[in-house]
Predict the 3D structure of the following.
Amino acid sequence: MDLVLSEEQEMVKTMARDFLTDKFPKTVVKEIEESESGYSPELWREMAELGWMGLALPGKYGGSDMSFLDLAVLLEEMGRACLPGPYFSTVILGGLPILDIGSEGQKQEYLPKIASGEKIFTLALTEPSARYDAAIETKAAADNNAYILNGTKLFVPDAHVADYMLVVARTDEKSKGEEGITIFIVDAKSPGISYTVLKTIANDKLCKVVFDQVKVTKENILGQLNQGWGEVQKIIHQAAVAKCCEMVGCTQRALDMTVDYAKERKQYGRPIGSFQVIQHYCTDMATDVDSTRLSTYQAAWMLSEGLPCTKEAAIAKAWAGEACQRVMALAHQIHGAL
């Protein structure tokens, strides 16, 4: 794995840094987070015009023919800016799964709409049990040339503004565990679907979605009938790596802000950064940031190369989650002089 960014990746990084710094200062991020929709349609269109929605999609579907590793660079910058909105749910949870397991007809129908920013997607996976094993209780009962969906999904990102959802449901009532599960592409405005935006500490837009006799045609099955759990696991691993990329960006931003503050803040007649304990804190933060970046980009590179990376994705996720907490805790201590 080459750890040096390519010329194209450097261009993506610079473009993203400039755009996000200009368009998403902290005041705008807070305003968008507190809004009802959770995103800015105007800025969403501008991002689409820059080609961000289709960055990792093939050119024949309106994309830029770039790789998941290139997308990782963009996601890191989005994490650095704390970008609010449905980018992650649309591109990572919607577009990439359709590209991976969708039929050619589904790709031609949906991917250009994602690449242009015309449609917003999301994934409806988690059940009220809040488990990430195959505890799927949402039912999809066969009805002639269609299926009827019934059930409840929790913590569905951006469902209140989504045009389509990838819904994970059990299509074989007699099955248990990982068998008999199927993914459907569902029109989010279909009759029988209701939404409730959940109140969260982070102000992100997670929703409770209820399906009551929702009709979906067989043509909207994504992937293989009754074989969906293996596909769901691929989506989860890919999404975990993508989320780690965002965490790399936010921890790097916290480190940069903290180092700058330690150079400026004076105590006892000198910058607090001159004290050894503060230097140790910053070193610990930098170690966590770099190790998170290394483990994350290794998994992202393997995804780009089509290599199995279940272990690497799990390592990145486990390390990034804890490292992010350590970095933020030390940043708070230094800024708060605790």
About this structure: The beta strands are 121-124, 139-143, 146-157, 164-170, 181-187, 193-198, 206-217, 221-222, 266-267, 270-271.
